[in-house]
Structure formats: C-alpha cells, structure tokens
Amino acid sequence: GGAPARPYLSGLNPEQRDAVESLEGPLLVLAGAGTGKTRVLTTRIAHILSTGRAYPSQILAVTFTNKAAREMKERIHSMVGDAVEGMPWLGTFHSIGVRILRRHCELVGLKSGFTILDTDDQIRLLKQLLAAENIDEKRWPARLLAATIDGWKNRGLSPDLVQPGEGATFANGRGQMLYAAYQARLKALNAVDFGDLLLEGIRLFREAPDVLADYHRRFKYLLVDEYQDTNVAQYLWLRLLAQGSRNVCCVGDDDQSIYGWRGAEVDNILRFESDFPGAKVIRLERNYRSTGHILAAASHLIAHNAGRLGKTLFSEGVEGEKVRVTGAWDSGEEARAVGEEIETLQRAGHALSQIAILVRASFQMREFEDRFVTLGMPYRVIGGPRFYERAEIRDALAYLRCVQSASDDLAFERIVNVPKRGIGDATLKQIHDLARAAALPLQEAARTLTESEELKPKVRATLRGLVQSFDRWRVQARQVPHTELAEVVLDESGYTEMWQKDRSAEATGRLENLKELVRSMEPFENLQGFLEHISLVMDADKGAGEDAVQVMTLHSAKGLEFDTVYLPGWEEGLFPHQRALDEQGKAGLEEERRLAYVGLTRARLSARVYFASNRRIHGLWNSTLPSRFLDELPDPHVQVEESKGGFGWGGSSYGARTSGESRFDRTTPFASTYDTPGWQRAQAARTGSGNSSSGGFSERGRPFGRGAGGAPVIEG
Ligand code: ATP
Ligand code: MG
User: Fold this and answer.
1) Probe ligand 1: pick from 10, 288, 560, max atoms within 8 Å of CB?
2) What are the residue ranges of helices labelled H in 303-353?
3) Nearest to 320 by CA among 295, 339, 286, 357
4) What's the pLDDT score for residue 708?
C-alpha cells in the first residue's frame, strides 16, 4: 500500500500492534508484567503523532512518576524525533492536576499564585483547628486527622459528600466538621494541599461545564499507565476528561496493584468497562522481559491470590537461571554476601546500573548502604533519600551531635523546635542575636537567655528544660553505651513519641528507621566514632551520573527492569509486613504478595532472594521465620543455597522436600525474642565476642541458635 514505513511498529506482536493502532474509542490493555504495556503506550503516542492525528499538546498522558514521564518522552523522541517536542500534558496525575488548576484557579475560589501546602504546614494548620475546637490533641492527633482527610480526598469526597459515619471515629464524629473547617482555612490562606489538586479539579469540571468542554475539545487522546493503582479521585478526574473524545487508553495489571494502602482501587479496572460501554479489551500474554524460570516462579507465586482477574503469561526466551534463594545468618551477613556478589558481577563486566536491590522497608537500606560505602561501590537510592539523609535520621543525628558537641549550631537549630515545643522563630532570633553579640554557641546563648527576663515564662521554661536535658545527656554519655544513650535521647526529647503519635502511612517506616539507626551504632566504639563514620558516609560519592547500583523499595520499582535483582529480607513480619497483616488481614497479605510479584518480575536475567535467620531490631534479636512466599515459589524454578558465610538457615534440604512440606523450617514462633543488655552489646562489639556480632564487623563469635521453639541451633 501507499502507507509510509513505520519502523516503530515492526517488532510488535499482533496484539500489541492492535493496541497501538486501535486509536478510536476506549481501550483497556490488561496484561501481566513485562508484556509491553508501557511500550504499547509509548508507541501509541508515537503513532498518533507521526500519523498527524493530533498535536503533542492534544495528548494527555499520565504516568506514575515524573521519572517515568521523562523516560516516556525520551522513548517517543527516539521513535518520531522532534515531533514530540512540547508534550505539555505528559506527567503524573498531580503535575497535570496542578497545571489545570493554575489556569482556572479563580473559578474554584483560589487566587493566582496559590500555594501548595506540604505535610508540615498541613499538620500545623490542623493543630490550630483542633485547638480552636478544644479537642485534645493527645487523644486525637492532628496527624490522624490528616490521614482521615487524605482518605476522604483519595475517595473523591469533599466535605459535603462525606456520609455521616464515614471516619466517624475521629473526635467522636467531628471529623467531617473539622474537614470542612480545614478546607475553609485553606481557601482563606489561598492554599491547597496535595489531595486538592485533583479534588478541586473535579469540582472545577463539574461546576464549569464550559471549561470542561474546552478540555474535551483539546484532548483528542488520553492515555494512562499503571492504571491498577489509580484511586477513586484520579479515576473520577480522568473519567470527566475522557468523556469528550472517549479515545482513552488505560494499561494496567491487577496483579501489580500495590497502593491499596494509599487508596488505590483495583476495581477501577472493572469499572472501566461499565463506564465506557463498548470498550475494547486487549490482553497481552507474551512476556518479553524475564527468562523462563523467573517468569514461572513469579506466576506460581501470584496464583496464590484469590481475587484475581486471571491471565496467562508465557515467554519464548531461554529458561535462564533459576530464582535463587539464599539464607543468611543475619542482615549483616546478607549485606556482605550481596556486596561480594555484586563485586564479582562488576569484575565480570556487568553494569552496576543493571543491578537493583529492592527492599520491603526503607530501614533495610541502611545495612546495604554502609556496606557499599565500605566497599567503595557507587550506589544510588531511587525514589527517596539515602538512609542517613532521611528527615527522621537527620533529626536524630542532630540530637546526638548536640550531645557530642555543645557548639554544633546547625544541629541545635535543626532540633530546637522538633518536636514542636513552642520555641518559634522569634525566640530563635533572640538566641541568634545573643550568640552573635557574645560570640557564644547557640546552646550557650540559649542557656544565658533562660537566665534573663527576656523570654516569656513559658518559653523560658521550655528552653531551660531543653538545655538541661542536653547537660544531663552529656553526663550520661560518659556512663552508658552510646546506643543506649541514643535511645534515651530519642525518648526523653519526645522525638520518638512524635512519630508514634503520627498516624500517617510513613510513620511506621520512620520509626523503623530510627531503630535501625540505633542498631547501626553498635559496631562503633563510641558516639564520636559513629558520628565520624556518618560524616564519611554523607560525604561519599552519591553515585550521581555514574554507573551505580540501584537501591529502592519494592514500591518504587514498579514499571522498572534490571538484569539482576536482589530481593533481601524475605522473612515473616518483614515481608509480608506485619502491619499489612494486622491492619488488613487477607487483603493485606494479598497486596504483599502482589508486591513480591512486582519484585520478581523486575528481573530480566537473574532474581536472587535472601532471607536472614536472625534480625536484630532495636537491640532485640528476632529469630525470624522464612517468608511464606518462599514456600510459594515452585520447586522446579528455584535453587536454594546457603550464603558463603556458612551460617545459613540450616533447614531441611531442598532435595529432601516432599510435596506439601515446607522447604524451610517455619516451626519457630516468630517472636522468640530475647534481649541483650546494651552495655553487654557494646562491650561485645568492641571485643568481637559475646552476644553481638551482627554489626557487620566481626565475622566470628555467633553463639546464637534460633532461640526457643526447637529450631536448629546454628554453630558459630
Ligand atoms: P510492567 O508491568 O512491569 O510495567 P510492561 O507491561 O509495561 O511491564 P514494558 O516495560 O513495556 O512492559 O516491556 C518490558 C520489556 O519488554 C521492555 O524491555 C520492552 O522493551 C520489551 N518489549 C516489549 N514488547 C516487545 C516486543 N514486541 N519485542 C521486543 N521487546 C519487547
Ligand atoms: Mg509498564
């Protein structure tokens, strides 16, 4: 025919090609991991542009992260060249949402240049509201209210739409009233929060039909990646926009829905067909990413979930390596083993950027990061800060630095009002002025101030309390091991409590990180030694712009792929995560399993799962049970090994397993926990013996078995 050659179409399989070329009308591509969904979306955009069906500015394309948006733009560029210049509507729901809102802000009662509140501002505002209503913040923390309001916003509910009873638990049913008051306050401040970016957009479209009609004319094609993780608000927003051209294409995989805890609703996939009658559904079944064993292992694992739409997946590539499962003695050995393997891979010419470590919880990163710093191995943390750069870790370190040195002004400034204790900017300025005038460090200036009449009595008392705390901690620093000191400081300062009261989704992770911080201090002689190590770590090459190992959570790994994927920490309680089980029961377990599926399917050539028999959290040894997900990996596709350190899981051998029997010893109760006094730990760390060896510095001296419960005792 006369059609011009379209090189980007060649190489697609028939179903993919159908999905690319079915441009008119609603289309749902429902397909498993690595089947080319994202590639279909990208090629579809290229096809729209190169056939002249729309200008770049007439395409709305939603990705899950900004990074994914950039990558998509690059890929399109490689297919159609400069035709892709200026795709202004390619981005995340939030980035597109704010763009639309800025153009019409006056229609929803906002003035141009409105601000977007961050979480801190949001909490401050809610605290004021709670105080104004005489609601006891100790019983009803502002952060819980923030989480409740976010939940409503995720479900597309403005204050007037909240049904009585929904979230009624907050302050005995006053949540809805507080929500309304909060929205009114935001308006008065000419501000929105993150959730409003879509919620106000929905209101805009509903209340200003001419504006919506304008967007209907503008957006000739709409596309959404990772559709299974949209929440109701995103869905409603999208549906309003898509009802214009109805040329909407969503791609997703119900087995990869991993944001239920943040309000994502996999039911949106089912709704699609009823909201867009006549929608075409295309299934892609060939996986192009992973080798045979990896794909088979992942498919078997996910088959344990009940609530699935179900689909077939096959690969035509080589069988490749089996999924490897390795038991390590503890998390220190796990990190050492992985580090060694990566060095070997590197020597064999593998690119570090093709190696990823995917953790369930961010605290797990610490041990790997320390290891990489020791090895001089470049690494990059994706989708979040590096461990020691996390806000809660920096806060905790600032406290410790203040104890170590009374003249560390930066540290003092960071924590003087964290947690909030009523020492505001005005007081801080007074401290600064005095410090400058008298050439004193801030801590000393603060002390002097509390001895004068210059401060209001309440502020003076608070500040004096803080100064005296530091004096006390400095005395204790000479008496107790530094790990214990750290615990004391974090407790007595109210810092730990601040996060314990926090009900936001990240709070658990932050508390885990704080515990991990204390744990990371163990191998060091004293506080000074530890803080010196930290400054080295902070200073280490951040791996930016060079070939570096990629470290991230499983959640941030969605949509990505790597040659080699390490999956550490497959232990009951950590993965599946205890909180998911406690809070959501079976649904929580299934979401965790989907996360495991996401993890395995990131690997092209090699997937390496680890579990540690012992994990020490907050100074407590936990004899762990191997994750139930390990038993759900099918025999023919798995190879079980012990780590080279020789302190493996010691369970029944893989070969001897009869059907139905666990491959791993899972008879030990999870919480067989025993404590080692802090001083003993510290001493052991110094001498390299006794009840401490998990710090990663001493190789020998592991007197522990697996605790109570009849599990095998492992010889050190
Ligand atoms: P996920 O569910 O993990 O997001 P996906 O379905 O979006 O996966 P892609 O990332 O688009 O899958 O594709 C997976 C890999 O397979 C990519 O490297 C992609 O380039 C490759 N691929 C997809 N389709 C083909 C094809 N027809 N021929 C060769 N390679 C392909
Ligand atoms: Mg994808």
Assistant:
1) 288
2) 331-347
3) 295
4) 28
Q: Would strands 603-617 and 620-623 be described as parallel, antiparallel, or unpaired?
A: antiparallel
Q: Among residues 359, 355, 360, which one has the least CA distance to residue 342?
A: 355
For residue 597, give the ligand nearest its CA. 1
**Integer Cα distance of 576 and 586 in angstroms:** 11
Residues 6+ apart with CB under 8 A from 58: 218, 219, 220, 221
Q: Which two tokens stand for residue 213?
A: 């009609």
* Ligand 1 near 39 CB (within 6 A): yes
Q: Are 337 and 645 in contact (CB under 8 A)?
A: yes
Question: Percent of the chain having pLDDT more than 90?
Answer: 56
CA of 289 to the centre of ligand 1 (A): 6
For the CA of 33, the nearest atom of ligand 1: 2
Model confidence at 268, in pLDDT bands (50, 70, 90)? confident
Question: Of 228, 256, 291, 427, which residue is the catalytic one?
Answer: 256
Residue 205 DSSP SS3: helix
Regarding the beta carbon of 283 and ligand 1, being less than 6 Å apart is answered: no
Q: Which of 37, 447, 593, 594 is catalytic?
A: 37
Tokens 């911080």, located at residue: 517
**Does residue 576 have a cis peptide bond before it, meaning omega lies within 30 degrees of 0?**
yes
DSSP string, 404-417: H-TT-HHHHHHHTT
Sign of CA dihedral 465, 470, 472, 473: positive
Query: Is 602 considered catalytic here?
Result: yes
Q: What is the pLDDT of residue 194?
A: 87
Q: Which ligand is nearest to the CA of 14?
A: 1
Gap from CA of 422 to ligand 1 centroid (Å): 54
12 lines ligand 1 (CB under 6 A): yes
Cα distances from 445 to residues 19, 405, 430, 466, 469, in angstroms, run 68, 14, 9, 13, 15
Contact (CB, 8 A) for 485 and 473: yes
Whether 385 and 538 have beta carbons less than 8 Å apart is answered as no
pTM comes to 0.79
Q: Which atom of ligand 1 is nearest to the CA of 31?
A: 6
679 Cα to the center of ligand 1, angstroms: 54
Q: Which residues of 171-182 are buried (b: 16+ CB within 10 A; e: fewer)?
A: beebbbebbebb
Q: Give residue 690's pLDDT band: very low, low, confident or very high (50, 70, 90).
A: very low
* Alpha-carbon Rg for the chain in angstroms: 28
Contact by Cβ (8 Å): 389, 425: no
Distance of alpha carbon 626 from alpha carbon 389, whole angstroms: 30
Residue 569: DSSP 8-state:
-
Mean pLDDT is lowest, of 438-452, 468-482, 505-519, 600-614, for: 505-519
First vs last C-alpha separation in the chain: 74
416 and 425 in contact (C-beta within 8 Å)? no
225 as an active site residue: the answer is yes
Positive or negative torsion for Cα 163, 168, 174, 178: negative
**Can you tell me which atom of ligand 1 is nearest the CA of 284?**
6
Ligand 1: nearest atom to the Cα of 40:
11
DSSP symbols for 495-529: HHHHHHS--STTHHHHHHHHHHHHHHHTTSSSHHH
Report which protein residue has its CA nearest ligand 1's atom 19. Answer: 36
Beta-sheet strands, E only, within 342-480 = 355-359, 379-381
As to burial, measured by CB atoms within 10 angstroms (0-12 exposed, 13-18 middle, 19+ buried), residue 544 is exposed
pLDDT, tens digit, 9 for 90 and up, residues 135-150: 988 888 888 899 899 9
Alpha-carbon distance of 702 to 202, in angstroms, equals 60
C-alpha 560 – ligand 1 centre gap (Å) = 10
Residue 174 annotated in active site = no
Is ligand 1 within 6 A of the CB of residue 291?
Answer: no
ω into residue 419 within 30 of 0, thus cis? yes
Distance (Å) from CA 559 to ligand 1 centroid: 9
